[in-house]
Amino acid sequence: MVEEQVNSKNMSQDSAQNQYDFILYGAYGYTGKLIAELAHKQGLTPLLAGRKEEPLSQLAARLNLPYETLGLDAPADLDRLLSKAPIVLHAAGPYSATAQPMVEACLRTHTHYVDITGEIEVFEWIATQSEPAKQAGVVLLPGAGFDVVPTDCLAAYVTSGLERPTHLDIVIKSLSSVSRGTALTAVENLGASSYCRVNGKLTSVDLAHTSRFVDFGKGQRLAASIPWGDIATAYQSTGVPNIVTYMQTSPRSYRMMRSAKSWRWLLKAKSVQKFMRKQVNKRITGPTEEVRETANSFVWAEARNASGASKTARLTTMEAYKLTALSSLEATQRISRGEVDAGFHTPATAFGADFILEFEGSIREDL
Ligand SMILES: NC(=O)c1ccc[n+]([C@@H]2O[C@H](COP(=O)([O-])OP(=O)(O)OC[C@H]3O[C@@H](n4cnc5c(N)ncnc54)[C@H](OP(=O)(O)O)[C@@H]3O)[C@@H](O)[C@H]2O)c1
């Protein structure tokens, strides 16, 4: 009798959860829209969601897709929303504010979770939810966009076949232009600590605390250390205890980055943050379609071990935002097909080091 009741609850939950292919929260943001358009093109039916009625209803009408307006501050409404699909693709950030209510709702409603964050603290927190996620039968996959799919896959690749790697350096070539959300996340982190991983510990350091030279194919260029998401995720994927992430930069920008510590108090001031957010909202619109269709992104990684052996490779991919839409949607579909075990994952632990090679234009070269 009790068993029957449980089964019938699961069945009604299953049928409700299959109502839509997935829920796209943050659907009317720059990247959310790209994902919604791509899903529509692929014949999928996501339930579009977000906190503002007007932009959401306009997008839903244009794509002829269903939508629901709700904020992340109403747990009961969020649970009701999540009961309508097996998985949510969470595209609303900064994730320091948006990840926790959504992940908690996913655990309550047994809904798989995918996002496109690149925020180190967010990855670290979501990783702590791995056990509850396993118990709930839920996959948690943050970082399914440009940050960190290509870098995570390359990290897994350069560490594979190298005996007990101890050090990992990952370098990205700076993006041609960024979206409003990426810029707002960057403003939020202005004046905050940078990070690297030392002996397995997340360690706070100054921005550009170290530098190195790398060759993306046009000779050796300067790269300065920055806090990229792999400080958290590459540790989960590879177990390498010492990780530094870098961005290729000019000597002038490197000097400016190094001097940022002197300005930290100013960059963190509420008035400065408010001014910067206003400037971002006014001026930043994100890469144009032409840029998304023509630009490329570049990633380089090197793993080393205690006996001096190393493995180095670089990767060329399509433009970062186009890749983010494609890779996050692909990850969402694979997880809903049951291809990934429950618990916390990085892109490489979920789909392997070659996942990135499945996207048009990806080229990996051993160096
Ligand atoms: N991993 C990657 O490579 C990658 C690539 C692209 C984007 N991202 C990240 O993804 C996020 C979105 O980027 P975007 O370019 O699409 O930014 P965007 O155009 O600014 O859109 C952000 C979306 O999030 C919503 N949002 C923000 N805070 C919210 C909150 N507290 N509650 C509910 N909704 C909230 C916004 O709604 P309102 O307009 O109502 O505020 C908007 O719909 C950013 O965090 C960005 O850093 C990462």
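^ NAP complex. The first strand starts at residue 22 and ends at 25. The pocket of NAP is lined by residues 26, 28-32, 50-52, 71-72, 91-95, 97-98, 116, 118, 145-147, 179-182, 184-185, 320-321, 324 (CB under 6 Å).
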